[in-house]
């Protein structure tokens, strides 16, 4: 029962998230995107992504208490960090809206509505930033506050309006962006990685609304003489940090996820070709030269090329009748058509290798089947070689002697 009566500020203090953690994650996202941004600088979508990530990093760097105090000292103004941090947050909010509008509508959308929307967002948030500085110049805030400025000056003329202005601008941007993202995430035909990235972005923007609600509640409580400062000083910062981590992950996931998926596909294809590669190596006596710094894509291409180079002349020894009977036998055993076709090809290739060993030159040159399908379907063929027991089962049915059933005796 004593734990239930714990002060919320003390409870939330245990879950403090350093602002340097989201800064690191956001910087990682920016580094991943930076080469593409530089290479395709004319792309407005990439510029919007780069601007948002850069501003988000700046927010968490300049909004840490140590940086706030240092900026105040360098400028000689007790709370100069306030309009500076509020301006960064506002610019980040506007940049997020621009990104969502550009991303959602697509680069091909050059309609007047889109251009007008972008212009309104830019002018609107630039106007908010100008107003923040004007209000700060009009306000009287002589006492430096590095953690609780929002609640400490909640009732101070002009500072009150400045605090409400940046929170309103941030809330409006996060509300619109969150709604657009969630609507987009539930549309049909999206790539799985993009869909999960959008869900992370939507969750991050939704948490930003929790940040705004905590801040506004604490400020309004001050107006009515209540003390809910812990919402602003203890709840809002970790929520903002977690939100930034999710937003950064939302940007990273589609890029990194697709990259890792493609690499995994290449490595899996390379590994699946190993049985057929070993068979072709034993048939030819050659190997693929090892290259120390070869990329996975290059190793896969070299293995595919080697297999096809060995398999092509081997098709002259393939018995098409054996392949046809093997296919029928595999279907009879119960294999699906695709698996039966792969098993039949494996049996025909193994038979061709034995035939070539017995007779280096075929009896009738150039009488083999059309090699197109065989050279194209080396993946299923290699997978079939991983199942020697199935190959033997089908081969046994093909090579088994046909028996003529004896006539049944006629009953007397």
UniProtKB/TrEMBL annotation:
<feature type="transmembrane region" description="Helical">
    <location>
        <begin position="235"/>
        <end position="253"/>
    </location>
</feature>
<feature type="transmembrane region" description="Helical">
    <location>
        <begin position="80"/>
        <end position="101"/>
    </location>
</feature>
<dbReference type="InterPro" id="IPR050039">
    <property type="entry name" value="MAB_1171c-like"/>
</dbReference>
<protein>
    <recommendedName>
        <fullName>DUF6545 domain-containing protein</fullName>
    </recommendedName>
</protein>
<feature type="transmembrane region" description="Helical">
    <location>
        <begin position="44"/>
        <end position="68"/>
    </location>
</feature>
<dbReference type="InterPro" id="IPR046675">
    <property type="entry name" value="DUF6545"/>
</dbReference>
<dbReference type="Pfam" id="PF20182">
    <property type="entry name" value="DUF6545"/>
</dbReference>
<feature type="transmembrane region" description="Helical">
    <location>
        <begin position="203"/>
        <end position="223"/>
    </location>
</feature>
<keyword id="KW-1133">Transmembrane helix</keyword>
<feature type="transmembrane region" description="Helical">
    <location>
        <begin position="122"/>
        <end position="143"/>
    </location>
</feature>
<keyword id="KW-0812">Transmembrane</keyword>
<feature type="region of interest" description="Disordered">
    <location>
        <begin position="356"/>
        <end position="383"/>
    </location>
</feature>
<feature type="transmembrane region" description="Helical">
    <location>
        <begin position="15"/>
        <end position="32"/>
    </location>
</feature>
<feature type="domain" description="DUF6545">
    <location>
        <begin position="263"/>
        <end position="382"/>
    </location>
</feature>
<feature type="transmembrane region" description="Helical">
    <location>
        <begin position="163"/>
        <end position="182"/>
    </location>
</feature>
<keyword id="KW-0472">Membrane</keyword>
